[in-house]
Each structure stands twice: as C-alpha cells, then as structure tokens.
Amino acid sequence: MTLLLRVLACATVLLAPLEGYLQVVHPHLSKVAPGLLIVSWVVQRVRERRLPAAHPLHALLAVFGVVLLVSSAVHAGDPFTTDYVQRFLPFLVITGVLADVVAREVPVRTVLAAALGGAGLAALGALYSLVFEGAPRATGPLEDPNDLAFFLVAALPLLIALPGRKFLLPVAAVLAAGAAATFSRGGGLALAAATLWLVARRAVSMRAVAVAVGGIVVIGLGAVVFAGTVLERAFAEKTYIAATNVDTREMRWQAAARMLASNPVLGVGPGGFRSSYAAASHNAEIDEQQPVAHNIYLEIGAELGLPGLACFLGAIAMAFVASERVLRVSWNLRPMLAVQAALIAALVASTFLSEQYYLPIWSLVAVAIAADLRREERERDACVARHQ
Known about the structure:
This protein is mainly alpha-helical.
C-alpha cells in the first residue's frame, strides 16, 4: 500500500499539467489519480489505525471547506455554484492528503521530480503545438497559453532542488522554451520574481543567471532562424490582444472588488463571479458576459468573501513559515528554497490569472508543510534518543 501511495502521489502531481490531453481521452480521466490517491490514503490510515500527521494547515483547510460549503449553500440558486464547489473542494482535500503522504511515504524530492516531469512533458507539447500544429501561441495540453505558462514557470525553480545539473540542463531548456512559446507576460514576470528570490537567498549565482539568460537568447535566435514565420505570426497576435487584455482585466478586477465590497462575509458564491459579472461591470464587455476575474485573490475574495480569502492567504503564509523552519535546521537548503521560489512564481502569475482550480499552488503548500512535519518527527526522535 505504501508503494501505491507513492505512485499515486507522484502521478497526481505529474499528470496535473497534462489535464487537457487526459480530457481528450475521457472527460474525467484527469480525476482518476487524485481520486485513487484519496481513497488509498483513507484505506491505509484505517489499516494502520493512525491519524494524519497533525498540522495547523489541516484545521485551516477544514475552515476553508466550511466557508466554501456555507457560501455555496447561501448561493445555491446560482447556475455555476454546484459545478464550482465540486471543482474547488477536491483541491482542499488533496492538499491535506498530499501533506500527510509526503510527510510519511514519499520523499520531498521525489514529488518535486514528478512535478518537473509533468511540466517537461507539457513544455514539449507546447512546442509541438507552436511548431507543428501552427498554433499562434503555444497551448499543448492546456487550452489557454497563460495557464500553460503558469505550470511551466512554477516548475522551473524546482530544478535547483534535484542533483545532476548537467542532466537537468535539457529539461531547463525545454521548460524555458515552452514558457517563452506561450508569450505570456505574466509568466515572464513570475519567472523574474522567482529568480530574484533565488539570487537574494543565494541559491543561484548571478553568473548562473547570466548563463541561463544567454542560453535563452541563443534558443530565441535559433527559433527566429528556423521558425521565423511562426514567431512573426505569434508576435502579431500577441500584440493585437495585449492592449485588450489590459483593459478587460482592469474592468474585471474592478467588478470583483465591487462584489467583495458588497458581499464581504460569504461573497457571491463559488462561480458567482461569472454570473454576477455583467451586473457588477454594468455590461462593460458585450462579447464576454461570464468571464473569470483573471486574479486569484480578487476572485476568491469576490466569491467566498473575506473569510475565504483569509483562509487562502493563511495557507500560503503557513507554507512560507513552515519552509523557513525547515531551512533553519536543514543542511541541504535547495529543496525548500526551490519550493519557495516556485510558490512565488505561482503567486505572481496568479495576479493575472484565476489559478485556484489548478494544482501547483496547492501541491507546493502541501510539500512545504510535509517538509515541516518531517522536521518535527526528526526532532522528536532526537529528543527521545537523548533521553534514553
């Protein structure tokens, strides 16, 4: 059963960025690995007669779940509520399960390697869609290039956590090229923020950053030479929609802020931003009446109120506090610094996207908490050994 939990935990993380490919095979195929992981985890803990490793995150996730369910009950008449609560609630459950499984059965680096593997496959799909399928911007396994960029830039910092730098260089090149092929400005800002964090924490040197930038420039020049027509078309489309994106996101952010101000306790309900947008924006977008907010913080706040937003931000804060506790006692700083940088990249990218329904933020929170639980277990064992 332990081996099964390890396989399912890694499969859940690895397959997350490949969701689009899985849905082509079957609409619910992407839910199989997480579902089996949850069931196997419950069976294993019952067989062991053992409770999950206790951490304040579990209590916070429980409160988050209550807020989600109460908000959905209050807004049960909304056409999107049932669908969105069914999408949101599993992420809270899988975060708690992953935190416990990674704390006990799966090494932290193994989970990070699985995340990198999935992102690498997604990046290959991105490049294939751009070069061979003629997509104006890389999409691959995800319909929206910006969502794909979110996965790739959140995975890139994890490279520093794994040994074998020469082996990882091709992976880094594929991830960087795939992210660049999405032409996502938010992804670029997210990667820059993560890089600055790693430099500030001395996890990478300025020389390494310079080499990486040089490599990206070389890849870019090669792309111009061998795929100039494709890139020209992609740049033209991105330039065309860039100004529109700025205007529409500003309108959506303002509408979300109005919803939060009008409904600060329980928001407008899960998925309620979409159904309430036309009224809140005064029909600002004739062509798009039911969009997403393109900002994870404003959307969660608008839909679940201040309690929901506080729970989400509290989980993020717990992850950073937990990772800092691990860093104080660890001889190997790279895994936790990688998790911090990846989380920063995901959070910055989510300023321009609604990414609460994708796994990276949740899985990174779980890994940080799991590492802290492992630290506590080591300290308890050391204390027992000293007293003996």
